[in-house]
Amino acid sequence: MIAVTGATGNVGRALVERLVAADRPVRALTRDPQRAALPEPAEVVRLRPDDPAAMFEGATQLFLYVQAGGERTAALLRAARDAGVRHVVLLSSAIIREGADETHPIYVMHATVERQIRESGLDWTFLRPGAFATNALQWAPQIRAGNTVRGVFADALSAPIHEDDIAAVAERTLVDGGHEGAVHRLTGPEATTNADQVAAIGHALGRSLTYAEVPPEEAGPELFPHVPPHALAGLLKTYASTVGVPPEITDTVEKITGTQARTFARWAEDHASAFRA
Ligand SMILES: NC(=O)c1ccc[n+]([C@@H]2O[C@H](COP(=O)([O-])OP(=O)(O)OC[C@H]3O[C@@H](n4cnc5c(N)ncnc54)[C@H](OP(=O)(O)O)[C@@H]3O)[C@@H](O)[C@H]2O)c1
Hints:
The chain has helices spanning 10-21, 73-83, 105-118, 140-145, 163-175, 194-205, 232-240, 252-257, 264-270; strands at residues 2-4, 26-30, 43-46, 61-65, 87-91, 123-129, 148-151, 157-158, 183-186, 192-193, 210-213. It is of the alpha/beta class. It folds into two domains: 2-129, NAD(P)-binding Rossmann-like Domain (Rossmann fold); 132-160 and 188-247 and 262-277, Rossmann fold, CATH 3.40.50. The strands form three sheets. The protein has a seven-stranded parallel β-sheet with strand order 3-2-1-4-5-6-9, with helices on both faces. It has a two-stranded parallel ribbon with strand order 7-11. Strands 8-10 form a two-stranded antiparallel sheet. Helix 1 packs across helix 5 (163-175) and helix 6 (194-205) packs across helix 9 (264-270). The protein is globular and about 55 Å long. It starts with a strand and ends in a 7-residue tail after the last helix. It binds NADP nicotinamide-adenine-dinucleotide phosphate.
């Protein structure tokens, strides 16, 4: 049995769908099972970081999303181990790297959980993806309303990764074995700018969209609904450092899954409905 936290999220949902399709027993953990709308026969169970023991009964592996345990992650990992879980696959972040700013809130968040896992006595695999293609969903309200997208740093470069490519790697690391102690850095296959991404979404919709650059000092949380407010300043600094700078690109998705990572244009086609009014 594989327990999946963050199971209604971008990566967790794609992973649950994959495991169900592959006939793997899966338990999806969510704060609200009534609203989860996950495919059968996944077991859908309430996430209880304050009372984790029952969540892991019968599970041997865990896919962990960093916020799932909050401050109780160490206790959650202990409960998982005591219940018989042996291997945890963590959805971490590419921000964890040599020379990183170790005070960056997003670094601290992920590094803390990586350390707790190393200390937990469980086998582990860390997935460290770079920017998610799903970050483009931040533009959906503007694109549903018109043809201009306001955002920061039109020329910021990233190699956005499709959430289902992360899920595909997670599936292989959970199912195949042999990834214990491995750190996998995951990216999309090519660099794109913010302006390119908006154009690609326009292409998928059959519309011509324009990116209107907003100075970072004028960018408030309304432009970043997916970013915890306390992390916004740090993230704007990170984005500023990516203008015109080629991003890290790895071939890890292809190496592990046998299939090339999907492009942002492909992601935009897969998610066009999210941008339609
Ligand atoms: N966005 C990026 O570019 C990027 C890059 C690298 C790493 N990451 C990391 O990837 C993770 C995000 O993955 P994702 O996009 O798949 O997640 P997501 O879609 O944002 O959320 C995953 C699920 O977690 C649950 N959740 C949300 N907030 C929670 C909280 N405070 N406590 C407990 N559960 C909570 C929700 O499920 P329920 O409501 O069903 O409980 C949600 O559906 C984060 O740790 C992020 O730092 C992101």
